[in-house]
Design brief:
Elements: E1 3-16, E2 19-25, H1 27-32, E3 38-42, E4 50-58, E5 63-69, H2 73-78, E6 86-93, E7 107-113, H3 117-129, E8 133-140, H4 149-153, E9 157-162, E10 169-170, E11 185-190, H5 192-201, E12 206-211, E13 226-228, E14 235-237, H6 238-241, E15 244-246
This protein binds FE2/S2 (inorganic) cluster (FES).
FE2/S2 (inorganic) cluster is lined by residues 215-218, 220-225, 237, 239.
């Protein structure tokens, strides 16, 4: 259930070029959020809340971690918040990844790029608890944009790709050859062109796609975030019905 809470900030620090890690204290969110969900964060002097993906939860210390990229005035102001400041959030929001049919030793692929990487880390945390075998392919523009390599490696087999080849494999995440693997599902998060490429390359698998497009109103009122689906209604709203959809459902 979505709740409005004012949460103390544990830390807010830069972890890569233009990328920041924000840790908040919340027993409710750390115990109730599922991977793929996000929080709507209110930033002082900005009317619209910003949707930020959940990158990790820690149920021992009751914290929730959000990773965000500085992409405009809202997130530029968010970096000025310090430890012990408070943040007004709504959440956890959105439909998350479906993990119900996964069992111990099933093999899955997690594949994402840029700001689509954070939700995959939360997902990897949950899958590691279920003892699911993961191969994670993470794409970044270049080495300076890369984050959480060690955190992912602690959870499973991790392959890094950079567009310019400054670290890991050179090229896009969909360029990585995984033909020797036998995945049950894939889970992907990132910009639309990447999701399209993933859906096409892994058309033989059932998968889940999380759309990282910036929302408008974020509450289902403005139709800024619609995507075509096979559903009778024709279109669904990412902010209300997503951000996660099954690969069979969406027409991209
Ligand atoms: Fe306004 Fe989704 S962002 S309807």
């Amino acid at each position: 259930m979505i709740r409005k809470e004012v949460l103390p900030i544990v830390s807010n620090k830069q972890i890569a070029h233009e990328s920041y890690e924000l840790v908040l204290k919340s027993e409710y969110i750390s115990s109730s959020a599922i991977p793929g969900q996000f929080l709507h964060v209110s930033i002082r002097n900005h009317t619209l809340r910003r949707p930020l993906s959940i990158a990790a939860v820690d149920q021992i210390n009751d914290t929730v971690t959000l990773l965000y990229k500085v992409v405009g005035s809202g997130t530029s102001d968010l970096i000025t918040y310090n430890e012990n400041d408070e943040l007004d959030v709504l959440g956890p929001s959105g439909n998350g990844f479906v993990l119900d049919d996964l069992e111990k030793n099933d093999e899955v692929l997690l594949i994402g790029g840029g700001i689509g990487v954070p939700p995959l880390h939360f997902l990897a945390q949950k899958l590691a608890q279920k003892q699911v075998k993961m191969t994670m392919v993470l794409g970044f523009l270049s080495k300076e944009y890369m984050f959480y390599e060690a955190e992912f490696k602690a959870l499973g087999h991790t392959i890094i790709a950079t567009d310019n080849g400054s670290y890991g494999e050179k090229g896009r995440v969909t360029d990585v050859d995984l033909s020797d693997y036998n995945f049950k599902h894939y889970y992907s998060c990132g910009p639309l062109p990447m999701l399209k490429a993933v859906k096409e390359k892994y058309a033989h698998l059932s998968g889940f796609l999380s759309f990282e497009e910036r929302f408008g109103c974020g509450v289902g009122a403005c139709f800024a975030c619609v995507i075509p689906t096979k559903d009778d209604a024709g279109y669904k709203k990412i902010c209300q019905n997503g951000p996660v959809f099954s690969s069979e459902e969406v027409l991209i």
